[in-house]
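Action item from last week, closing it out:
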Amino acid sequence: MEKIIQVGILFSYYENLLNEKQRQVINRYYNEDLSLNEIAALSGKTKQAVSDMINRTVSKLYKYEEELSLVKKTREYSNNLINLKAMVEGDFSKEEILTEISRMIDNI
């Protein structure tokens, strides 16, 4: 289940870097939950060809994340904003908040 979610997230970030056939097969398999046989029938390919394309494309999505880190960076930014909001709503001094903002900016 975790891999399905990971691939779905990676796909949402990097789908435009894939060609149309790759996008279509990943979308059908991971988002539409079609079987390999169903995708093969729709695309006129063999089940093995569809399986190979899925595996190659998923590897490509992981490689894009390894090189670009867009998902990781988005998570870091989101966590930073959550922490900053907690600081603003908590008993932190203006100086502590500004220090945290400065640290966040340096990491960008």
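Closing note: Residues 39 and 78 are 36 Å apart (CA to CA).
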